[in-house]
Amino acid sequence: MVVFALRGAARFSLSSNGKTRMRSLVVIGGGPRAAGLLERIAAQSPSLELAVHVVDPHPPGAGRVWRHAQSPLLRMNSMAEDVTVFTDDSFDGEGPVRPGPSLAEWIDIDPTSFPSRQVQSGYLSWFFEHVRESLPPNISVTVHRATASKVVGTRVWLDDGSSLDADVLVLALGHLDAEPEPEHRKLAEHAAEHGLVYVPPLYSADADLSAVTGHVVLRGFGLAFIDLMVLLTEGRGGRYVRSGGRLAYVPSGAEPTLYVGSRRGVPYHSKTGYRLQGPRPPLPHFFVADALRGRDLDFRDDVWPLMAKEIAWGHYHELFTGHPGLVGMPFVEFATSFSALPWYSEEMRELEALAVPDPADRIDFEQLDRPLAGVTFATAEEFQEHLRSYVEADVARRSDPRYSADLGAFLALLSVYGQLAGLMPFDGWWHGYFSYLASGPPPDRLEELLALSRAGIVRFLGADMWVEAVEGAFAAGSATTPDVVRANGLIEARLPTHSLSRTADPVLRSLRAVGDVSEDAAGLVRVSPVGRLVDERGEEDPVRFAVGPYTTGKAFAAFARPGTNAPAFRQNDVLAREVLRTLGD
Hints:
alpha/beta, FAD/NAD(P)-binding domain, 3 domains, 6-stranded mixed beta sheet, 5-stranded parallel beta sheet, 19 strands, disordered N terminus, L-asp_N-monooxygenase_NS-form, HpyO/CreE_NAD-binding, FAD-NAD(P)-binding
């Protein structure tokens, strides 16, 4: 029996002989992570009588971030063929493989297209229903379209006044809001005092942009900026036309002028638009996290050099096997020397110069990280031309199979990222660097950025951007040009940085108030290797678990590329088995 309801409470029941009791699992959060957990529970074919309660005010499966109720202009930054919620033959978890369609197979669209988030919402909602239907008859699922307001012990209180009692509780809260940081409070107060507009860090689909007009500074040049760019231009009636192979923007007249900058001063790299030309690189090769466990590790000295060598291995494996005409020696000879040398060594640089004649085919992590380091311009106009050329070159490179070595590096990036969690806390620089290289927008979004720049709607500020609250305005500039901009609006074009001490989530606040949760140095909720909450005394909770980007279990995407032995699927598998063991199955 499967139950689908909006309200209800868990009830326990005994059989006539008093030996069987209905068990209750409450999952707070009903997005793709919760659906993936239920899929792994179903895969185990548990025999116990279990009532599952999923609590989320947003649609089950899609959740808040992927809900259908958002602008149809907003799109994924992944190709349809690169999105799946199902395990496949690459999966090496203990649970069984239960294959299913990728997003491209589910909706039968161009595998290399970048679908809208509304399309992904449909896929995730279908997946949740598919999981419900695949559960054995001894497991029921009740969905509560409500907000969990607090947790006391294993009782979950909902915002309608009802409550649920759990034998096991899982917090699958997803991406969370945070209370404003002191700087953001001061900027908001300045905006209110001077009649300006200030938008703090939040999810772009949730932002109220109705008052954004005139000259507006956007601090951040990643995916949040791309979303805001779309909503404030095409979302206000502008349109794009293509003439002679070049995209142009036709304004509606309702757009503000957007001044954008960041620490790097450049947008995230475009997603690649091609496939590998050679065989898939064997990964992991040099960075094997299991070989490092149990050691006292320093990220920069011990871990990053191996990560860099692994990513470079993916790059050069594709260059040599997919483009033998671009290299100066056989791959076997190169690979033998490459394997023997430390990444940061003069000998490695000499090998690269000898084996790879064109510097554009070599990988340079420092140049990739800070392309504007030490570069200055006499005027803002000179910089606009420079950055347009930079973006044009990036789009061209990421669209040309001749540079498919970048895709080899991307696959190695994914391998490294998936292994790092559990080895040591994520280094803040590394997480940003990974996103910058691997989680950029579709190439046509950068073409739109170029069209907006040529139309004067978007203006580039530069690297090491600064913002100040001045009399009657916000001022902004950078180290790249001497120009200073005065604006009547400031938008933080990034997601909120969540920490337990500043969490806006009522459940975590209630648990923190009594010491039932604790945080690490980065503010993440501490969990054990299998996902149990760790309290302020350092003790693991026997029946309460947490999973997601706000935990030390770390932020694996809830869906993944097929054939990659996705870390999130392995994590779901471990958690599902631990939950079932705790329930007594």
